[in-house]
């Protein structure tokens, strides 16, 4: 099997290397990829969309359909993880630790859960005492990470950034809560229902802006038609910002859904 | 000699071919499913590298128009001054798809492990033929 795989890999690599000879030189401004459509984008995107970041302009305006279905792909990935892994059977035994004394309580299935608070805390199979340094550093860092994520989303029209990037950063900050404390703390702060609704809202915001453009008499995602509502000034940039916010919400929610479902094998009780 | 010259002038393409073949080999030959998924990830990264290197132009800067925006007093924008934004857009979405496929692949691996207590392909095949 290994020899066969090596032969296949060598053959494919050889063919690709042979084909490389026909490809345009690296960094050639006259290469086919940089000579037709992309020149139009570079030279006219600023006057057509008022957005200096050409990547955002192409992503959210010229190729708006593509990005909309991309967001739908992300939503479907979250949905697939949920449907594959989610397990609603409650765990048989629960373990709690009485904080002042350090006594561990073993609660059977029929006894019902104990309220976790100052007196009791949750215990996992491989429980280690919560590290004060890690918890404190995360508590200080997380607000800054979230503000940076919002900046990346909001400033995506003018500097590198956008909905996908900002959404991933925001999702990472939420995942950090789960890693620094435990999974139950994360679930308590951001419930599963909240995440599911938000991942759908993100896609709906995107589609809703497109439909709003249609209601105003234009084509789907023709942001220029929104000017009676939001004013003439930088209207396409505003439309793109709205779309990017939708993308950011969806990506944030889906990142956390994927993380929570994979680390806890769908039981949402214990994980990394 | 010809091959050496090719590698020297177009080493970006050679690098992506090397990365892509590493990923392809891992996907075919590795026995562990997680290693196969990692191979798929390397393969996708190779394609991202290929596209981004296509968009590169000599003596050009990132595709964000410089200067005073939105007042209609722009100097002429030359296409040769900015690198091609289109491959960047395509790869931005490809990265998102690769994250999504990675997540779903991991979920499938977790599910397989729950059912068969193994991720090794030959053991899985043995378990399946037992039934």
General description of the model:
The complex is a heterodimer of chains A (272) and B (131). Chain A is mainly alpha-helical and 272 residues long. Chain A has helices spanning 2-20, 37-49, 54-62, 64-85, 132-154, 163-180, 183-189, 192-215, 227-230, 235-263, and strands at residues 94-98, 103-107, 120-123. Helix content of chain A is 62%, strand content 5%. A three-stranded antiparallel beta sheet of chain A has the order 2-1-3, with no helix packed on it. In chain A, helix 2 packs across helix 3, helix 4 (64-85) packs antiparallel against helix 8 (192-215) and helix 6 (163-180) crosses helix 7. Chain B has 131 residues and is an all-alpha fold. Chain B has five helices and no strands. The mean pLDDT of chain B is 87. In chain B, helix 2 (11-29) runs antiparallel to helix 3 (33-54) and helix 3 runs antiparallel to helix 4. Classes of the chains: A mainly alpha (272), B mainly alpha (131).
């Amino acid at each position: 099997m290994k020899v066969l795989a090596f032969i296949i890999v060598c053959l494919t690599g050889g063919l690709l290397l042979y084909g490389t000879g026909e490809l345009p030189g690296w960094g050639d401004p006259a290469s086919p990829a940089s000579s037709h459509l992309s020149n139009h984008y570079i030279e006219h995107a600023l006057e057509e969309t008022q957005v200096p970041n050409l990547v955002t302009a192409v992503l959210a305006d010229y190729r708006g359909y593509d990005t909309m279905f991309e967001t739908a792909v992300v939503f479907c990935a979250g949905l697939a993880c949920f449907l594959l892994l989610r397990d609603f059977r409650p765990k048989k035994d629960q373990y709690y630790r009485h904080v002042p004394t350090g006594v561990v309580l073993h609660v059977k299935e029929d006894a019902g859960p104990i309220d976790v608070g100052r007196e009791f805390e949750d215990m996992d199979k491989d429980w280690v005492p919560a590290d004060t340094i890690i918890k404190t550093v995360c508590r200080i860092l997380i607000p800054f990470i979230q503000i940076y994520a919002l900046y990346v989303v909001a400033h995506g029209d003018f500097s590198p950034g956008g909905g996908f990037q900002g959404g991933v950063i925001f999702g990472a900050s939420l995942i950090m809560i789960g890693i620094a404390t435990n999974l139950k703390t994360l679930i308590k702060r951001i419930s599963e229902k909240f995440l599911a609704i938000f991942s759908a809202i993100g896609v709906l915001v995107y589609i809703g802006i497109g439909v709003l453009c249609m209601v105003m008499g234009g084509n789907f995602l023709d942001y220029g038609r929104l000017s009676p509502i939001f004013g003439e000034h930088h209207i396409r940039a505003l439309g793109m910002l709205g779309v990017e916010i939708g993308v950011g919400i969806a990506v944030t929610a889906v990142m956390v859904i994927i993380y929570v479902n994979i680390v806890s094998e769908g039981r949402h009780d214990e994980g990394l | 000699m010809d091959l050496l010259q090719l590698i020297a002038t177009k080493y970006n393409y050679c690098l992506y071919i090397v990365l892509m073949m590493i990923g392809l080999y891992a996907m075919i030959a590795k026995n562990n499913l997680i290693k196969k998924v990692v191979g798929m990830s390397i393969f996708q990264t190779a394609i991202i590298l290929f596209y981004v290197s296509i968009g590169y132009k000599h003596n050009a800067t990132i595709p964000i128009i410089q200067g005073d925006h939105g007042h209609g007093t722009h100097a002429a924008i030359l296409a040769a001054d900015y690198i091609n934004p289109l491959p960047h857009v395509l790869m931005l979405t490809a990265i998102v798809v690769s994250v999504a496929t990675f997540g779903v692949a991991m979920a499938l691996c977790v599910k397989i492990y729950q059912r068969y207590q193994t991720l090794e392909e030959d053991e899985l095949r043995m378990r399946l033929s037992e039934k």
